[in-house]
Design brief:
Protein-Tyrosine Phosphatase, Chain A, 262 residues, six-stranded mixed sheet, alpha/beta, 9% strand
């Protein structure tokens, strides 16, 4: 399992290092970090991040970045690589996304809410826009780095979670371990999920099935499974996805593994 890093204000920042791959190698610690948004980082958190990373890949939309810009981390460059072009109900976390209307047909139907989110994960793969920016994030990791690379969205669940899944499988982590890591987000940000659900319910005038919204804003195995299914449907295999979907060459994949495995 990946390692949660303790911060004062950040709840879902993790180091992928220390995990064993299927061929017995280990992901290097202190080089690959996944996270939720950094906007709430305290001065102590910022100082800690400055010692950890030299690059931050922001996977959020323009609206999300404008409403809650990242803190400035001394010595770190920022790369913007949005996975979605606009609002994604249950994914993006800007004011427009949390209006009641995107959830009108889902608020009282947990099964429909889960199905909607699973379909969103399929769209991550089916969208040329999304694939372009997953590829860009991987290309950033292939650049030389003195410290680590951190990628994040807002919750650290959907866009950051699927980016982590790509990185981990590329490095040879078993899918069962990738799934365990993915599902941990709901535990780490439980308070945030509850707050979002309460805001949406209040905006809708009450009468909302909180279970439906909690599942939509949480993590479900069905979501990541849908992501993997879409890869297989569109490309036939994860290896072809790396080559044709992300545009990686064999030498890129070898370099990535040599850089981040020991």
């Amino acid at each position: 399992m990946d390692r949660k890093i303790e911060f004062e204000k950040l709840r879902n920042t993790r180091d992928l290092g220390g995990q064993k791959t299927v061929d017995g190698r280990t992901i290097v610690s202190g080089k690959l970090f996944r996270s939720g948004a950094l906007a709430d980082a305290s001065p102590a958190d910022i100082a800690k991040l400055a010692g950890m990373v030299d690059t931050v890949v922001d996977l959020r939309t323009d609206n999300e970045r404008n409403e809650r810009p990242d803190v400035d981390i001394p010595g770190a460059k920022n790369v913007f690589s949005p996975i979605l072009e606009g609002i994604g109900a249950g994914v993006t976390r800007d004011q427009k996304s949390e209006q009641p209307s995107p959830f009108a047909n889902l608020r009282n139907d947990p099964a429909a809410a889960v199905a909607r989110m699973a379909d969103t994960y399929r769209k991550f793969v089916r969208s040329d826009f999304g694939l372009t920016h997953y590829a860009r994030a991987i290309r950033v990791m292939l650049e030389p780095h003195e410290k680590g690379v951190l990628w994040h969205c807002t919750a650290g669940k959907d866009r950051a979670g699927t980016t982590a899944a790509i990185v981990e499988e590329l490095l040879g982590l078993p899918r069962e371990d990738i799934m365990v890591n993915y599902l941990k987000t709901a535990e780490y940000i439980a308070d945030e999920i509850n707050a979002i659900v309460e805001r949406i319910s209040a905006s809708a005038g009450g009468g909302t099935d909180n279970e439906a919204m909690r599942r939509m804003f949480g993590t479900e195995p069905a979501y990541l499974l849908a992501f993997w299914e879409a890869i297989d449907e569109k490309f036939g295999s994860f290896d072809i996805f790396l080559h044709e979907g992300l545009g990686l060459l064999d030498e890129d994949i070898e370099k990535f593994r040599n850089t981040y495995l020991e």
